[in-house]
Each structure stands twice: as C-alpha cells, then as structure tokens.
Amino acid sequence: MSFGVEDGILSIDGVRVDEVVEKTGTPVYITSYSKLLENINAYRKAFPEQKKLYAVKANYNLAILRIIAKEGFGADVFSHGELYLALLAGFKPEDILFNGNSKSDEEILAGIRAGVGFSVDSLDELHTISEIALSEGRTVKIAFRVNPDVSPETHPKIATGLRTSKFGIPWEDVVDAYRIAYELPNVDPAGIHCHIGSQIREVEPFVEAMNRLFDISAEIQETGIKLEFMDIGGGPGIDYDGKGALNPDNFAEAIIPVFRERKKEINESLELWLEPGRSIVGNTTVLITRVNSVKKAYKNFVAVDAGFNTLIRPAMYGSFHRVSVASKIDREAEETYTIAGPICESGDILAEDRKLPRVEKGDLIAVYDVGAYGFVMSSQYNGRPRCAEVLAKNGEFHIIREKEDIGDILSKQRIPEFLF
Ligand SMILES: *Cc1c(COP(=O)(O)O)cnc(C)c1O
Question: Helix %, strand %, coil % for the chain, to 5?
C-alpha cells in the first residue's frame, strides 16, 4: 500500500515520515514510488496504443522524470529548461513535443537541434521555426495548437481552451495556418493539437474539443496535408476533495470509440496522443510540515513551516488539499483548525477549518496530493530556501533533491562596487 500507518505515524511506501524528516528537516515533499507506478500503469492499460506525453511542468524532478521515461512515456515540455531535463532523463526526442505560446528564438533553436516536434501557437512562431529549421538544415514536425473554444468546469486560471484564452489559434482560422505551413520550407505539418485546461472531472469537454479538431481536420487534409497525429492535451482531474476524479479508464471509454469512428473521415493511420500531467503525479506526493505554534485567536491557528513559498496552490487557486496530523494519524478528530504558513501575508493559508486530532507544537502535518504543481511552483519568497524532495520505495527512501540553504538565496546576487 502506498500510504499507511506505522506506530501511529503516517508511512509512505513503508517509510515512516518522522524518519525522513530526521534526515531532511521540514518541510519536505515525499513521493510514493508505488503510487506513481500505479498511475503510469493505469494510463498504459487504458491507452495501450496511444502516445502518452507526460506534461513535464507538473513535476520535473529528475528522478520522477527518469521513472516516467523508463516506463515508455514521451514528454510535453514548455521551455528550454524542461526540454533539457526531459532529454537528460532519457525521453526520446521523437517523443517530445515542445509546447508554449511564447517561445524565444533561442528556445526554438534548442528544440530544433534536439530534434523534437513543436506545437505552434501563432503564425509568427511558424515563420520563425521555418527560418531557423532552414538555416539548420532540418525539417521540423509541427502541430498547430488549436483554440477549440470549449469551457470546461474548472478554475478560470487553468481553463486554457476558452475563446478568450491566450493559447492557440482560433479554430476558425487554423485551416489557413495549415495552408501556409504546407507551402513553407522545412516544416512538416503532421499533427493537430489542443489542451483545454486542467483539473477537469467530466469527459464531455474533452469529447467536444476532439470533435472540434475532427471537424477541421477534414478541411486541413484537403490542403494536401496528411495528418499523422491528433493530440488532445492533458487535463484529467484528480480527487483532491473526495468528490471524484476522472480516471484513465473512464477517460479512455469516452474518448477512444469516438476517435476510432471519426478517424475514418480523416485517415486510418491517424494516431491519438495525450498529455497527462497532474493525473500522473498529483496524488503520489505528500508535503510534511512541522507545527511551530498553535494559538486560539479569531480561529484556532496552527502555524506550520510551509507556506505559499512551498505550496502555492491554495493561495493561488483556492485549491483544497486534504490534511492530517501525520504524527498522530490514528487519533480522533477533536478540534477545528486552520493551517497557516510562515509567510507575512494573510493569504498564506494552507487549509481552512479542518477537524483534526489535538495539535501541539512539534507535530507533523501532512498535506496530500501535492505531486503536481507543488514543488515546481515553490519560491524563495521571504528569504526562505526551498525544501527537499524525497522518493520512498519499498521501505527505503532516497533524497531526490537536497534542501537549499542561505547560500542558494545569495548565490546569484551581487553588490555593485560603488556600494562598498
Ligand atoms: C499543463 C499542460 C498539460 C498537462 O495538464 P494536466 O492538467 O496537468 O494534465 C498538457 N498539455 C499542455 C499543453 C499543458 O500546458
């Protein structure tokens, strides 16, 4: 079992969290290897023939990337840094798609030299890719990122396929973009792409978006292009709050039959690609944070050593994360507490009004489901070094990122001569 209890203390893959903390201090992110593998295998089972590109931005710890690469996934990257890490982790260039609405010329050059495909967000970018590819003597596989104009029920900040979103080319205009791409040297318009958002729990918006892509694909092929793949992006939601998730099986059951049927209109060899991020890593990881103080004020506040510098999701999206007292896991809930971080802003609240066992200074609090958009969005705000990351597997744990120290806060800062 990925998450269990030993001697009244939370354990992850057979490792007690207090043992980890002794070594790494707090806060610390701990990932369950078995849970990660379970998620990977669930996708492999539900989508055996489809290309699965892991969305690297969700969690790009190199050890995590290595596990996912070894299991045969491709990668969806959003920057030169993510591309570099993905290659280092062992993802094959032909299984990497370079995404993003604002790629610099340097990033495009790096992607072309690495031999990866591109999801193209504008005609400006298309021309840049063609010019750089020409000067490098390479041909680049591209897909256009289509804005399908669908509105999934999710947080507005993570809905990316609305008409008003900054991403993609409006679906009405995209056929013209393919016409232009067809005439340009050194680009091969082989795919069509969309990504409608994140933490989506219903299948309907995905089906709607895919249907939209099919509606324009026939017209695209009339330009002389033969589409090789349709990439419907990522976005399946996970069960943060007990209200259910979109699991890969349900997702596949809704998507694959429609895809099989409609690809007949386009061509039989059209491949379906996916880009899951959150649903691969989200529920694999727990954040362990220590209680510095407990006080009765307007509410019962538990002040812990992780704030939005360590986990920004609650402050940024109002996200709900389950919490427990990891050091008293079997005790009964008695009191209602609000868990507050150490940052000097009132919005620095990790969890509000949770019923928990009696909390005391020194206790460990676990914040669940933080494997996606957790550590990767952390900062050094308030002059706090970033924390460690740990991988637990079979009763052993491995530090997969050392915690930072004050030196890391100082390392790139300079005082100009005249101030001495
Ligand atoms: C963020 C992103 C994903 C992954 O989204 P999840 O909700 O984490 O599955 C996939 N594709 C693109 C283009 C993205 O920007």
Answer: 35, 25, 35
CB 277 within 8 A of CB 234: yes
> Which residues have CB under 8 Å from 69's CB, separation 6+?
75, 86, 89, 90, 91
Mean pLDDT of 155-171: 82
The DSSP secondary-structure symbol of 269 reads T
189: closest CA among 218, 234, 220, 212?
Answer: 220
Strand, helix or coil for residue 416: coil
- How big is the CA angle at 87 (ends 86 and 90), to the nearest 5 degrees? 90
Of 164-168, 330-334, 372-376, 385-389, which range is least confident?
164-168
Compute the distance between CA of residue 355 and CA of residue 322 in angstroms, rounded to an integer.
11
Residue 247 pLDDT > 80: yes
Amino acid 100 reads G
- Could you count the other beta carbons within 10 Å of the beta carbon of residue 295? 10
Q: Which pLDDT value is given to residue 284?
A: 98
Asked if pLDDT for residue 156 goes beyond 90, the answer is no
Does the predicted TM-score (pTM) go above 0.85?
Answer: yes
Look-up of token digits 């589409």 = 227
What is Dmax (Cα atoms) for the chain?
73
For the Cβ of 76 lying below 6 angstroms from any atom of ligand 1, the answer is: yes
- If one counts every other C-beta atom within 10 angstroms of the C-beta of residue 149, the result is 18
233 lines ligand 1 (CB under 6 A): yes
- Residues near 12 by beta carbon (within 8 Å), at least 6 away in sequence: 2, 3, 4, 30, 31, 32, 286, 392
User: 344 an active-site residue?
Assistant: yes
CA 275/CA 294 separation, integer angstroms:
42
Catalytic residue among 344, 346, 412, 416: 344
